[in-house]
TrEMBL record:
PANTHER family cross-referenced by the UniProt entry: CITRATE LYASE SUBUNIT BETA, LYASE BETA SUBUNIT, PUTATIVE (AFU_ORTHOLOGUE AFUA_4G13030)-RELATED
HpcH/HpaI aldolase/citrate lyase domain span: 17-247
GO molecular function: lyase activity; magnesium ion binding
The protein's name in its UniProt record: CoA ester lyase
Species, as recorded: Streptomyces tardus
Amino acid sequence: MTSPTSPSPVNRLRPRRTCLAVPGSNPRFLEKAQGLPADQVFLDLEDACAPLAKEGARHTIVEALNSGDWSGKTRVVRVNDWTTQWTYRDVVTVVEGAGDRLDCLMLPKVQDAGQIHALDLLLTQIERTMGLEVGRIGIEAQIENARGLIAVDEIAAASPRMETIVFGPADFMASINMKSLVVGEQPPGYPADAYHYILMRLLMAARAHDLQAIDGPYLQIRNPDGFAEVAGRSAALGFDGKWVLHPGQIEAGNAIFSPSQEDYDHAELILDAYDWYTSAAGGTKGSAMLGEEMIDEASRKMALVISGKGRAAGL
Ligand code: GLV
Ligand code: MG
């Protein structure tokens, strides 16, 4: 099935080092979130909203998007997943009410590409009806169970609206019966990193389709060392950002998902030196020396990644 929205007007380079979860049913948190330095906020209609609060939360979110000051932030709403009865009304109410103030919808517990196609089609109809730019609202797909992980390549390729692949560790651990109750931490008794395969699988699918890869929550909000360790793990692999559940996790998250000043300066040096050597040689040299380090086209590409992230972080 082909998607109705092509080519893509979505912006896959939005900053997302920290993605702040805000319960959609809580006007006080919705107000407070606007002043916090997270790159992204996502207003939640799913697990942070009790079933009886969901209907009211849709309207609270529309009101907060329309009247709040979200400048400088990527604005996302997490709707309920397609196996519930809530998804279509979440989408219709939020996009009809505040579609022009919304950057993306996050779809949780995605299990196959059809679920992304369904959201894409619904969004397109609402955009047409409301006179919104068709295809501008992006999709973040949360992978939270084994079926989703197995289908992640098709999910990543399912629509030009796709912007990110998001890991949902809590639901994922539950769905595969992992023997740990501390989200993001290693199950006792396993001597290596139980998350490595999952994180790399998600990252490969994201990169193969030019999407961002976002790590999920760390629930021990009073344990900054634990947060730093878990966030550092996905940042080291190449993830673009991570959820934060509490204002106290934001500053650390922004720093962990930005390159260090030292790495940024080194990357800029590689780019300058490589450009200088290759142009001095009239385009005939493919490698050069930077101090004791040999640099070539692959080094330039690696340096471009660090330099791009550093510039985005204002280094
Ligand atoms: C988030 O939704 C998670 O399940 O970890
Ligand atoms: Mg979840």
